Amino acid sequence: MVGQHSSNDPPLYKIILAYLSVYLIWGSTYLGIKFCLETLPTVFLLPGVRFILAGTALYVWARPRATRPTLRQWRDAAIVGGALLYIANGCVVWAQTRVPSGLTALLVAVVPICMVLLEWIRPRGTRPTPMVIAGLVLGLIGVGILTGPENLAGESRVDLTGAVVLILACFVWSAGSLFSRRAAKPSSPYLTASMQMISAGILHLVSGTIAGEWAMLNLPAVSIKSAMSLLYLILFGSIIGFTAYMWLMQVSTPSRVATYAYVNPVVAVFLGWAFGREGLSSRTFLATAVIVAAVAFITSAQSRAEPVSLSEQAVDTDRERGGPPDSDTPDQFVCATPSKDLLEAPAQSCG
User: Fold this and answer.
1) Spatial separation of the C-alpha atoms in residues 192 and 77, rounded to whole Å
2) CA within 20 to 30 Å of 64's CA: 39, 46, 142, 161, which one?
3) CA–CA gap between residue 288 and residue 284 (Å, rounded)
4) Is residue 351 within 8 Å of residue 33, measured between CB atoms?
5) Which of 38, 37, 48, 95 is CA-nearest to residue 207?
6) For residue 132, which of 116, 144, 109 has the smallest C-alpha distance?
7) Within a 10 A sphere around the Cβ of 94, how many other Cβ atoms?
8) Distance in angstroms (rounded) separating the CA atoms of residues 263 and 270
9) Which helix (H) or strand (E) holds 152?
10) pTM higher than 0.85, yes or no?
11) CA–CA separation, 142 vs 194, rounded Å?
12) Helix %, strand %, coil % of the chain (to 5)
């Protein structure tokens, strides 16, 4: 655990590098998608290639280290991957044809808010605390600032159609994450993630084929920037970033790792301005401050209900799914508490 000194603690520089990876990589994937779309304007084939290649590579690495997945586990992986990486991520890719990358990340940052709402309204759901409710109100205000009247703060608003699609993506991502609580999964979270990526990749490629996107590809016209951005999304966004996240889940605490949820949109807004020629308006600054504060309210409030140790979380999680305690990492998406729910749900980033 971070903050406890023992001979088994990893070096501090490794922890810092892992946090920087999660902060910077997942904050930069939105700009990477933007660069890809410049000369690879395919809503389905782009994420399809990304997730097929990343999922296959991760599966080849994880499969020898875990038990063979069952048909039921593949089915549930397809459902979760279909919700998170096919529908939600597909909506994000499409929305970025209309919404700047920084504002996309900012709207996607309301995923914890959607998670709290869905957890609240479901049968026998968890009622949010006053601090969480304050976070919900702040989040709604932040979205309202981005989508409000044209004359608000003297700046134009974000594209409404794109914003609606992004909010829909947040709710689908949250619903898929809640379903994954009881989904059948292999013993390894890495194998689980790879199966979800492969399933989503297949769905994207099939959809792209039906939509005729292959005819839209002009490979000789693909720029080096787009090609390198796709490689970056595969290697860094879907493999290295996720691996760093899962390692942090072993050596740190959920509340600390959850800080990525309000660092990522700030990183994305800055990178969009610095490298994507996206403007920074007073509306953007105000919405960023309000939404980041909302996410901080929610994650910090729920961290108070955090389990005593990650090892206890792993035991509780395995009891829920009827399996033996896993001495490796906690499951990727299974959540024993609301705070763990919000942390592990976007474990691959919506971007």
Assistant:
1) 7
2) 46
3) 6
4) yes
5) 48
6) 116
7) 18
8) 11
9) none
10) no
11) 34
12) 70, 0, 30
Q: Using the Cα atoms of residue 118, residue 120, residue 124 and residue 126 in order, give the sign of their dihedral.
A: positive
Three-point CA angle 188, 205, 191, nearest 5°: 5
pLDDT on residue 346: 43
- Residues 106, 142: Cα–Cα separation, whole Å: 9
For residues 230 and 47, give the distance between their C-alpha atoms in angstroms, rounded to a whole number: 9
Cβ(246)–Cβ(332) below 8 Å: yes
Say if residues 283 and 155 touch (Cβ distance below 8 Å). yes
Strand boundaries in 10-87, DSSP class E: none
Tens of pLDDT along 250-305? 888 776 787 888 788 999 999 999 999 998 888 888 888 999 888 888 877 766 65
Taking the C-alpha atoms of residue 171 and residue 277, their distance in angstroms, rounded to an integer, is 29
Which residue in 99, 38, 107 sits closest to 350, CA to CA?
Answer: 107
**Token digits for 76?**
């549930």
Q: Tokens 């939509």 identify what position?
A: 211
Q: Which amino acid is at 130?
A: P
Average pLDDT, the chain: 83
Task: Determine the length of the chain.
Answer: 351
